[in-house]
Amino acid sequence: MSIKPAPRTVEPLVEAFATVLRRRRLAQDLSQEALARRADVSMRFVSLLELGRHMPTINTMQKLAKGLGVPLSDLVREAEAEPAKE
């Protein structure tokens, strides 16, 4: 008998940040690669963040905000206001 790992649950704020990050990136017509270059992170990491598979550090969040040309506080405020998924 094989044991399957428990499904990963995504923290609501991580999921909300992922949604905000993707929405902001697309609003600027940026690819994940372009944002990654601007933020000095890997494209794969941007992808995993947008999927909610990684929890960004405050330093990473600051890099992403800078890459998007917005204050970090704007991204956090938007993520906090993002409706929770049921």
UniProtKB/TrEMBL annotation:
SUPFAM superfamilies (alphabetical): lambda repressor-like DNA-binding domains
HTH cro/C1-type domain mapped to chain residues: 21-75
The keyword DNA-binding belongs to this UniProt entry's keyword annotation: yes
InterPro entries recorded: Cro/C1-type_HTH (IPR001387), Lambda_DNA-bd_dom_sf (IPR010982), TransReg_Diox_bact_type (IPR050807)
Superkingdom per UniProt: Bacteria
Keywords, comma-separated and alphabetical: DNA-binding
Pfam families hit by this protein: HTH_3
GO molecular function, a single term: DNA binding
CDD domains from the UniProt entry: HTH_XRE
Gene3D superfamilies (alphabetical): lambda repressor-like DNA-binding domains
Cellular compartments per GO CC: cytosol
Coiled-coil positions: none
Name assigned to this protein: DNA-binding XRE family transcriptional regulator
Natural source organism: Paracoccus lutimaris
